[in-house]
Amino acid sequence: MISVFSTGYFTGDNTGAIIVPILAAVFPHASHAELLAMHHFIRKAAHFTEYLILSVLLYRALRGGRRWSLQAAATAVVIAGLYSALDEFHQLFVPGRTAAASDCLIDVSGAAAGQGLLAVFRRAVR
Fold it and tell me: pTM for this structure?
């Protein structure tokens, strides 16, 4: 899914054409600038969320057994970070898309948050 979201179909202009009118209906008193800021936030939250999910799935694939594994958690974050960098590099070649180091930071933050959630869940289940 991350690779699909990196295509030209999901440029800011394309997603804005759908999301901004919905936001305008939900927030009728918001200015155009506020609607654009909300759209920007939604796009960045999507980065965070998709890499959080990727990290959790990677951890499940890497951990091997049923016990918590710090090594699997760290490896999941590293793999997610490397994929994020590759994804941003790919976007350099997609018309209408741009690569941004800040997006990589958001992605890795989401991956780390995924591992944090798993650690909290592990403690709660004990």
Answer: 0.88
